Amino acid sequence: MKKQKIEINLEVFETLSELPEHIQELMNKAQQARENAYAPYSHFRVGAALRLSSGLIVTGNNQENAAFPSGLCAERVAVFNAGANFPNETITDLAITVRAESHEVAEAIAPCGACRQSLAEYEQKQKSPIAIYFKGETGAIIKVASVMDLLPLGFDAKYL
Ligand code: THU
Q1: Which atom of ligand 1 lies nearest, measured to the CA of 115?
Q2: Domain holding 105: CATH number?
Q3: Which of 14, 21, 64, 75 is flagged as catalytic?
Q4: Whose C-alpha lies nearest to ligand 1, atom 4?
Q5: What is the CA radius of gyration of the chain?
Q6: What is the pLDDT of residues 34-63, one digit of tens each?
Q7: Measured between alpha carbons, how far is residue 84 from residues 28, 78, 80, 120 in Å?
Q8: pLDDT at residue 145 in the model
Q9: Which residue from 34, 35, 43, 44 has its CB within 8 A of the most atoms of ligand 1, so it is best to mutate?
Q10: Domain assignment present for 128
Q11: Residue 130: predicted pLDDT
Q12: What does the pLDDT look like over 91-128, one tens digit per residue?
């Protein structure tokens, strides 16, 4: 038996102003998208904004459904939006932010497992990393340089 350890790298920024202007802009777009979320069941709003290599910003927010599993997370709405409309463009950065209607979320919330898997697909397709920045309604921002930092030992097309 051999024990192995996987380490992930992340960076923590206390305020948005510590980040470059184009990332601040991206997080502000995610925040605007968040407010348009359709979240009548969870009352938990999530906004995502991703930047394409052309500089264009594509957004998404969570879309819920009375038949709960039929809804979709903000990150997948954004990445599928980009995949559907700009299939040949590279995604460079993704910003995510959340707001709960019942309490203040003061910690950075990372994307769920299914969204990590979907994001990993696009990172592999484009063969370049997508940097992810996530934050709560308030509090610090966490950055990972690649989806792979959030999905070690993931499943992908090479196993098919
Ligand atoms: N949600 C997201 O949009 N992204 C995530 O990564 C986790 C959860 C949404 C789904 C649902 O509409 C609400 O947040 C509560 O789970």
Answers
A1: 6
A2: 3.40.140.10
A3: 75
A4: 73
A5: 16
A6: 999 999 999 999 999 999 999 999 999 999
A7: 23, 10, 6, 16
A8: 98
A9: 44
A10: yes
A11: 98
A12: 999 999 999 999 999 999 999 999 999 999 999 999 99
Quick check: is 146 in a domain? yes
Distance CA 132, CA 109 (A): 11
Percent of the chain with pLDDT over 90: 100
Q: How many domains does the chain have?
A: 1
Predicted TM-score (pTM) of this structure: 0.97
Q: In angstroms, rounded to a whole number, what is the distance separating the alpha carbons of residues 109 and 52?
A: 23
The structure tokens listed for 25 are 């802009």
Domain of residue 22 covers: 11-150
Residue 160 lies inside a defined structural domain of this protein: no
Q: What is the dihedral of CA 148, 150, 154, 157, to 10 degrees?
A: -50
Atom 10 in ligand 1: residue holding the nearest Cα: 73
Which atom of ligand 1 lies closest to the CA of 111? 6
107 among known catalytic residues: no
Domain-located, residue 156 = no
Instruction: Tell me which residues have their CB closer than 6 angstroms to ligand 1.
Output: 39, 42, 44, 46, 62, 64, 71, 73-75, 111-112, 115
